[in-house]
Here is the input.
Amino acid sequence: MLLVALSFGQAARAQGVVLVSARAGGIPELDRETAAQLYLGRRTSLPDGRSARLLDLPAGPERDLFYERLTAKNPSQIRAYWSRMVFTGRAHPPHEANDQEDALRRVLTDPSALAYLPAASVVGQPLNVLLRLE
Here is the structure.
């Protein structure tokens, strides 16, 4: 029998990514359009008017997968997009977490924080899954 080990990025691609918030935050779900508007800086608040603290993972396969599935933009397009937005002063990109554990910790301690993580990494955590991108 041949066993094939998947890299973390491959595992995330196979299982998808989820946009999450802490259960204490009280955000039940987000539709894809609202999530895209938030993560592209076109919207700064949730549908109920509350502000959201958006978190990005460091550059890598999980981040690329998230933006590809949410916005249909590849990594180069996302970098160019944010360069234009920052240069023109229209918006700032989400705060970058150090790694997945940091993003998870920030979400669990800040009720206004939203982050995307590989679906398998949120099992058993006190989180609301706001959107699945499979």
User: Anything to note?
Assistant: Helices lie at 8-15, 32-39, 61-71, 75-87, 100-109. The beta strands are 17-22, 53-56, 95-96, 113-118, 127-133. The chain has a mean pLDDT of 89. The chain has five helices and five strands.
